[in-house]
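Summary for the funding panel

The consortium committed to producing paired sequence-structure records for every protein in the target list. Below we show the first two records in order, beginning with the earlier of the two.
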Amino acid sequence: MIWIVLIPLAAALVTAMLAPRLSPQSRVPERLAMLGAFVQAAIMFFIVFQFATVATFSAGPWVLAEPIPGITLAFHFEPLSLLFAVIASILWFATTLYASGYMRAHGETALPRFYCFLGISISATLALAFSANLFTMFVFYEILTLSTWPLVVHTEDETARRGGRTYLGVLIATSIGLFLPAIVWVYQLAGTVTFTPGGVLPAETSGVVVSLLLLLFVLGVGKSAVMPLHRWLPAAMVAPTPVSAFLHAVAVVKAGVFALAKIVVYIFGLNISSDVLAHWIIWLPAITVLLASLIAMREDNLKRRLAYSTISQLSYIVLAVLLFSPEGTLAAGLHITMHAFAKITLFFGAGAILIASHCTKVSELDGMGRQMPLVFVCFAIGSLSIVGLPPAGGLWSKWFLGQAIVASEYPGAWLLLGVILLSAILNSIYLLGIAVRAFIKPFSGAATIEAVPWSMQAAMLIATGMTVLLFLMPMPLHEWLVVLTLSIR
């Protein structure tokens, strides 16, 4: 497990040390990143196969340091952590492969710096995944924010700096102002911040305190982008497309919803009575689902449309987690996985469109499906997964989310189900509509279509293939999450 965290960091540090001696044309940074991604993914799958036949599994904690008595910097792993690490490992490899073609085709500079911070970011993401307590999670949550900021402002123009200020400002403000006080409050109540099956909050904790704590975590984990603390995500679209893909599918936003899921499962516990919770809190992600979808429909810029789509889809996961049920946790784990592969497919498609045609707006894509069939077929499959239609994996996560909502004890559960169904209709309009106009409408001929680098096409095929595979073979993932739900009851 430690090697999984250290290999991306080692690749980043070697790149930084070699950077002064590398020419702008050198491909050493890409090769180091690809080697690190391959080795790290190989070790990750070795660990997964070790536990493939085990009914329940967990290991740790491994304590690295104890800054103050009772507060440790420690790692462990259990099903939820391992699932997130597997997703990050596969998609780090795909992102690195994609970036090796995109960054040079788009004429980006400072490539050693780019790959250095990309490695640090994935290392922080994996450390967060394996965190054994809230203190460790908070430390690497902040490191992830700081290490991704140079990626967001990579182009160093005024637009990038402005977007970077919003990105850093919102995420730091929410984590210091809300997330950290919530952690301190948990420690004051329970005397521990260690992730524990069944939760750590004392049984006598009042409903008002539990609800306020939950609200602090929902808003304080700003990377989950629940409205109104979502502005950082569209602002980050000034970054190069591989960074956007990385933020939306591999690291930042997935780290946010994963952190929230882990907090609900191991700090609050699923046995907490729904009678002590403020039921209106679940409507924060429900409203976000609809509002973000409505805004996405109006966005003509392709990356911003995908950004608002991500805001909406993240709140599906938050909503599932806030059901406080094993069924909701299973649905959240499924949607974290399904959305990761589908959304990275869509961003890879957006980058390929930019490289091939220099188009950034949806209104400019008429007829391009016949000019770039591979790109738009992959884009269409990713869109189907976001909507929740076959032959894409998103069908299963939305199916189980619907089941979890119906089975829940929340007042207005059927209204929540209506929100999910209405959002799926909106998703189909603003995402599938892109593929429809690309294949059905006539090509204007205004854009000159250039070749897409093979590495970008290969990365798209990996992500799209996983999206289809998750539709055809969902049971291994489902069984993994069943193990999780059994271990936390």
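The next record, for a separate protein in the list, is shown here:
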Amino acid sequence: MTEPLWRQLGAPRDVFGRVVYELARWFALAGGAVLVAISAMSVASILSRWLIGRPVLGDFELVQLGCAVSVSAFLPWCQMRRGHVLVDFFTTGLRPRDRALLDGAGAALLAAVAALLTWRIALGGIGIRQAAESTMLLGVPVWIAYALMLPSFALLALTAAHTAWSEFGGAAK
């Protein structure tokens, strides 16, 4: 609920950390651009429905695909900024080093889960492409969203691994 004020959230000092930090920042910016685009399309659809009685064809399909891509692009940046929700009810009384070890263990677990999800998203995207699944109204191939989400989850695995390494004392603070 409350993060210690002593924790600096700037760019890491190690080379690998700076690289994943910048990649995560650019992914978040790209995710924001996608979110702005689908928001503009939603406004256009609402106005079109109001003015001429017909929405933009397939607006909900594009919102679904765009949100999936956008949210996945935000996850690495959130991890690098230590922005994920922490339940620190039981750890508020611990020493900072003990808390860092628990945070490192959580980040290592997130890295493992993100790597697993990267693998499963890749396999799922391949399966969906082979099945030629597409959206109902526009016929957009669904595998494209999987392909766009894949790098975000791979980067999430890297950022979480770096966070774990930093918490365990491997990176310069």
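Regarding this second record: Residues 17 and 162 are 6 Å apart (CA to CA). The mean pLDDT is 90.
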